[in-house]
């Protein structure tokens, strides 16, 4: 090829005109800058408006501390439960053949297309004090709505499909041959799962858990409906951000927001590392 | 109908995995949705219609749907451009841009909401700039549009990107050899290949935007009939302890969601058929 001299202004037929390229890149960078990068910078700028000490002091506030603890507790309950569900659902769907599989997959995906507010409303209508079940539970001393269980349920509803969606395509691709070999060699069902299946799906599982966790800690709409927003008790981090913001406590609101933003950035970092290192074992990279 | 409900399989764990799957699906998703539908049924269709058929509710539903459509449309264009640029071009900061596309998925909606408001409010960095030409963004429908574009941003990019990666250069070369200009090749060869994935992303973005609440309420201004979105109306009814009205609007939104889900499935069937032909 090197002995062919291109005339000035030559460009291969499969690339765009340089001007077009620059316009497209410019449009993409400008849009991402205005929509994604600038808001991220704004969170930290607003949090540090009165200096680092003010930001840290607002995070030391008992209500902020309670919100952080509550959000961590919710994620610690909801994420493992949804991970267990995701593994069970993926196993059931990919290791067995049964009628209605497509319907089951659609039902698992359903929470993605339901508004978080409607999800919260559903929980309130089922477990609220004026429903039959909710009234009975309150009488027994176990309120669900405006308490931790309701927030956990609402969080689980909106994050329900995350792990299952990640695992199902990976396990479909891997097939059943390895598990069948292990079983033929006399391994028990659990041993087969722990030593054959789990190592095969661990990166996809981690990926799903990562996304599930980010959403669980950040969920706002569904939690806003069921939490009752009791300061220090049922106000999660996003709910506390809303309350502080509405009270014009901008630095405090943005300081908490900055903590959640750091979480989001760490999630993205892990996600990118997983995609670079284990692309062949993830569903996201070859899904369309 | 001679097919058994569940085929015999040597795989262990049928009872356990089916049990966990169905129990949790019922407890977390199906029973609560059932509770909403039951509430609607006991309230009665006529009463529900009465609640929904009001100017304020129609305005909110129409606003949510219209702005979601605009935002998803913008995301369709931006998403295809982003996918193309990220796969085909090499420029400094490309990896960072690629990773940042997912930020709207990872950043909590409330955080996005207050951050966008801080920037685009009349006294914010960008808002004050826009104000000099008399353009108010936050607390108008522009603000809602902006928030909806933000939350739907990753969908189109992430569905189209793998398809761009799979396009074979030979196809483009063949088109060029046959005398097509670059623009012609893009219009007649490349875009049709991207269309099914782009439409799926568009529908996902639309479905997400219609139900979005957290990022919108801060920037919307929430003025009835003008900048009040449908999910906010449900929250307002709930705060008034008017559960019947909340359920009626909730069911209306659920119907919109189901219609959207059907649309997504139809698009996927259509795209599968198209890919089958290629």
UniProtKB/TrEMBL annotation, chain A:
InterPro entries: CysW_permease (IPR011866), MetI-like (IPR000515), MetI-like_sf (IPR035906), Sulph_transpt2 (IPR005667). It is found in: Cell membrane. Part of the ABC transporter complex CysAWTP (TC 3.A.1.6.1) involved in sulfate/thiosulfate import. Probably responsible for the translocation of the substrate across the membrane. The complex is composed of two ATP-binding proteins (CysA), two transmembrane proteins (CysT and CysW) and a solute-binding protein (CysP). Pfam families: BPD_transp_1. PANTHER family: SULFATE TRANSPORT SYSTEM PERMEASE PROTEIN, SULFATE TRANSPORT SYSTEM PERMEASE PROTEIN CYSW. The chain crosses the membrane at residues 22-45, 66-93, 113-137, 144-164, 204-227, 248-270. Residues 68-275 form the ABC transmembrane type-1 domain. Keywords: Membrane, Sulfate transport, Transmembrane, Transmembrane helix, Transport. This is Sulfate ABC transporter permease subunit CysW. The keyword Nucleotide-binding does not apply. It comes from the Bacteria. The gene is cysW. It is a multi-pass membrane protein.
TrEMBL record, chain B:
It is a multi-pass membrane protein. The keyword Transport applies. Residues 61-264 form the ABC transmembrane type-1 domain. The keyword Transmembrane helix applies. SUPFAM superfamilies: MetI-like. PANTHER family: SULFATE TRANSPORT SYSTEM PERMEASE PROTEIN (PTHR30406), SULFATE TRANSPORT SYSTEM PERMEASE PROTEIN CYST (PTHR30406:SF8). Part of the ABC transporter complex CysAWTP (TC 3.A.1.6.1) involved in sulfate/thiosulfate import. Probably responsible for the translocation of the substrate across the membrane. Part of the ABC transporter complex (TC 3.A.1.6.1) involved in sulfate/thiosulfate import. This is Sulfate transport system permease protein CysT. The gene is cysT.
């Amino acid at each position: 090829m090197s002995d062919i001299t291109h005339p000035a202004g030559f460009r291969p037929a499969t690339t765009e005109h340089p001007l077009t390229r620059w316009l497209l890149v410019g449009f993409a960078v400008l849009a991402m800058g205005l929509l994604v990068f600038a808001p991220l910078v704004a969170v930290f700028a607003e949090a540090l408006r009165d200096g680092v000490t003010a930001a840290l002091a607002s995070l030391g506030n008992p209500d902020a501390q309670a919100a952080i603890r509550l959000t961590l507790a919710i994620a610690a309950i909801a994420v493992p439960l949804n991970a267990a569900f995701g593994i069970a659902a993926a196993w059931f769907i990919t290791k067995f053949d049964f009628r209605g599989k497509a319907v089951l997959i659609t039902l698992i995906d359903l929470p993605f297309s339901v508004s978080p507010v409607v999800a919260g409303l559903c929980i309130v209508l089922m477990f609220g004090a004026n429903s039959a079940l909710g009234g009975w539970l309150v009488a027994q001393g176990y309120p669900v709505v405006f308490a931790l269980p309701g927030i956990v349920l609402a969080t689980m509803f909106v994050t329900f499909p995350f792990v299952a969606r990640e695992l199902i395509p990976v396990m479909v691709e891997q097939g059943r041959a390895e598990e069948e070999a292990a079983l033929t060699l006399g391994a028990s069902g659990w041993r087969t799962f722990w030593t054959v299946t789990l190592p095969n799906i661990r990166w996809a599982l981690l990926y799903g858990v990562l996304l599930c966790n980010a959403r669980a800690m950040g969920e706002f709409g569904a939690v806003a409906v069921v939490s009752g927003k009791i300061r220090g008790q049922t106000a999660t981090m996003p709910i506390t951000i809303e309350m502080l913001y509405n009270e014009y406590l901008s630095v405090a609101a943005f300081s908490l927001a900055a903590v959640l933003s750091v979480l989001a950035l760490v999630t993205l970092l892990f996600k990118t590392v997983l995609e670079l290192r284990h692309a062949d074992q993830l569903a996201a990279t070859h899904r369309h | 109908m001679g097919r058994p409900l569940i085929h015999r399989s040597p795989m262990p764990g049928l009872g356990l995995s089916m049990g966990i799957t169905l129990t949790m699906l019922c407890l977390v998703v199906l029973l609560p949705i059932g509770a909403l539908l039951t509430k609607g049924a006991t309230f009665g269709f006529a009463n529900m219609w009465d609640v929904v058929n009001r100017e304020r509710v129609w305005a909110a539903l129409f606003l949510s749907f219209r702005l979601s459509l605009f935002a998803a449309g913008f995301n369709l264009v931006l998403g295809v451009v982003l996918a193309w640029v990220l796969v085909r071009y090499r420029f400094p900061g490309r990896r960072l841009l690629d990773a940042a596309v997912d930020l709207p998925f990872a950043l909590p909606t409330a955080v996005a909401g207050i951050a966008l408001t801080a920037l685009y409010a009349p006294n914010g960095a960008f808002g004050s700039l826009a104000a000099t030409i008399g353009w108010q963004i936050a607390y108008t429908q522009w603000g809602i549009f902006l928030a909806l574009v933000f939350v739907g941003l990753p969908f189109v990019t992430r569905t189209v990107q793998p398809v761009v990666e799979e396009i074979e250069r030979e196809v483009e070369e063949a088109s060029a050899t046959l005398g097509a200009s670059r623009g012609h090749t893009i219009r007649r060869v490349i875009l049709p290949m991207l269309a099914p994935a782009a439409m799926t992303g568009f529908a996902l973005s639309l479905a997400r935007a219609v139900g979005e609440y957290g990022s919108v309420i801060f920037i919307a201004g929430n003025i009835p009939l003008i900048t009040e979105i449908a999910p906010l109306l449900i929250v307002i009814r709930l705060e008034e302890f008017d559960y019947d009205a909340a359920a009626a609007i909730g069911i209306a939104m659920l119907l919109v969601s189901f219609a959207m889900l059907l649309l997504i499935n139809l698009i996927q069937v259509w795209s599968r058929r198209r890919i089958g032909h290629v």
